[in-house]
Design goal:
Blueprint lengths: L3 E8 L8 H16 L3 E9 L11 H12 L4 E4 L2 H4 L3 H13 L4 E4 L9 H34 L22 H15 L4 H11 L13 H9 L8 E2 L2 E2 L18 H17 L15 E3 L7 E4 L12 E4 L11 E3 H22 L11 H19 L5 H36 L6 H6 L2 H11 E6 L14 E5 L1
Parallel strand pairs: 1-2, 1-3, 3-4, 7-11
Antiparallel strand pairs: 5-6, 8-9, 9-10, 11-12
Helix pairs in contact: 4-5, 6-9, 9-12, 11-12
Length: about 475
């Protein structure tokens, strides 16, 4: 009876995402299995996954070890030993299983090492140690190369970040850039990153391989706040500064101005500080805004489990809950209340827009002060380089200047954040009712809160009654 073996394939980088490298490995491993009269029953594939980086988990490698230990396969065929392991600890885990099951088979296309024998294990350990050193050497050279490229403001290559063209990563992709700017406006208007992530996932935006896996929250956040948007060059995730104390500029087109980018970054950071880890998703327009007309407690929307499409039952209601200290005596159908409030708010904002002039964009008043401090810092560094002052003197004078610079930059970010937020929230006077309800729920609530501080819902009495707008009391700012 033929021995059942698993084929393991891996490649560290697959920039195109076409998996051609692992496909070639699989074909060669299948040919070797046939020559050995083994039956290849499963292919374990880790495409675009490093075996050298310690923080990377290879899902199929871990599954293969479990299957080996459980006896589901009787051996492994790989293209080369370094496809399986570039860290000695991974090889030792594999050897441990071969210790437990001495009759396991092992073969590679490029050489003939038998992990079932002491000599084979010794040779395998030597080869993995050399592969590990080779990876260390390559990593060191690559880091040095990337630092040099970063200092020159040049790109490092690889797949184009979202927002730039795939065929030329120095040129902006107009459609992607428009999606980023729209998402940034939503962030400033109060929309959650989670809401943007869900929409992007549905529309196939934000990820070169959208549809193959779910985008993470931090991935969308990085796209919307990346220093690359304003042309700043980064190294290991941090903005790289030149000898003049200014951020190194990259050789690519930008999507945002510095003011726009700082405003978005400040808005995201502020939300994290104010409500760390808090679940902010809401389903109903007036949740947290509506109050009971009897006890004045906050009312939240509640889904009606009896509602079905086409039925006369209410889809959702606003109900005073006795659980949170409310009286529990007020419950009203939600949909007509939402429509009424939306109509009133949009009308009020149209009237206000008709008599209010469009605000002129103001510049931050302390720009000159920040520029002067940055020039002072550059002069201090140049003075030390030309031996006019000592390093000790430089290190005494520079920290105070750096603190002043950082404080002014933070103040500038807050200034433009508030300005851009006001612009994003003001732009609602020309919305129709349908356009209003097509917006994300967070944006709808921001528009309502721009005009109202609360909505008081009074009881309608017993029995089925026609909706009475007079029982809904908006509290205007």
């Amino acid at each position: 009876m033929a021995r059942k073996v698993g084929i393991y394939t891996r490649i560290s980088r697959d920039d195109e995402g076409d998996a051609l490298g692992v496909a070639r490995q699989q074909k060669d491993c299948e040919r070797l299995s046939d020559l050995r009269a083994w039956q290849a029953v499963k292919v374990y594939e880790d495409n675009d996954v490093s075996a050298f980086k310690r923080n990377v988990v290879r899902d199929d490698f871990e599954l293969m070890l479990k299957d080996l230990r459980a006896g589901l396969i009787d051996g492994i065929v790989a293209y080369d030993l370094d496809r399986l392991a570039r860290q000695p600890r991974d090889l030792e885990r594999l050897i441990e299983i071969f210790d437990e099951r001495p009759r396991l088979e092992f073969a590679t296309v490029t050489n003939d090492i038998n992990l079932g024998t002491p000599d084979g294990r010794t040779m395998a350990r030597i080869m993995v140690a050399f592969a590990n050193k080779s990876s260390h050497d390559s990593s060191r050279r690559i880091r040095r190369k990337h630092l040099e490229l970063a200092q020159q403001g040049r790109d490092s290559g690889g797949p184009a970040p979202y927002g730039w063209r795939k065929d030329d990563r120095t040129k902006v992709d107009p459609d992607a850039a428009a999606a980023i700017r729209e998402a940034q406006r939503e962030i400033l208007a109060g929309v959650r990153i989670g809401t943007i992530r869900t929409r992007w996932q549905e529309q196939g935006l934000g990820n070169p391989r959208a549809g193959t896996k779910r985008m993470a929250h931090h991935h969308v956040e990085h796209i919307l706040t990346s220093p690359r948007l304003v042309g700043y060059r980064t190294y290991h995730g941090e903005i790289l500064y030149g000898e003049n104390g200014q951020p190194v500029r990259g050789d690519w087109e930008t999507i945002n101005t510095v003011e726009e980018w700082e405003a978005v970054c400040a808005a995201v950071a502020e939300r994290k500080q104010k409500r760390p880890g808090k679940f902010l998703a809401r389903k109903y327009l007036l949740s947290g805004i509506a109050r009971c007309g009897l006890c004045k407690n906050k009312i939240r929307g509640q889904n009606n489990p009896r509602w079905e499409p086409g039925s006369r039952a209410a889809k959702y209601t606003y109900q005073c809950s006795g659980v949170n200290g409310g009286c529990g005596k007020v419950s009203r159908t939600g949909e007509p209340i939402d429509k009424l409030i939306a109509q009133l708010v949009l009308e009020e904002q149209r009237e206000r827009a008709a008599v209010t002039s469009v605000p002129i964009e103001r510049r931050w008043p302390r720009d000159a002060e920040l520029e002067e401090i940055e020039q002072d810092m550059a002069q201090l560094v140049e003075a030390e380089r030309s031996k006019q002052i000592s390093v000790a003197t430089l290190l005494q004078l520079l920290p105070g200047k750096e603190r002043a610079r950082d404080e002014l930059k933070l103040e500038r970010a807050r200034f433009y954040k508030e300005q851009k937020q006001a612009e994003a929230k003001e732009n609602a006077s020309d919305l129709s009712l349908d356009e209003f309800f097509a917006l994300p729920i967070e944006r709808q609530q921001e528009i309502v809160l721009h005009s109202l501080s609360a909505v008081i819902i009074h009881p309608a009495g017993r029995g089925r009654r026609k909706f009475d707008p007079s029982l809904i009391e908006p509290v205007w700012h």
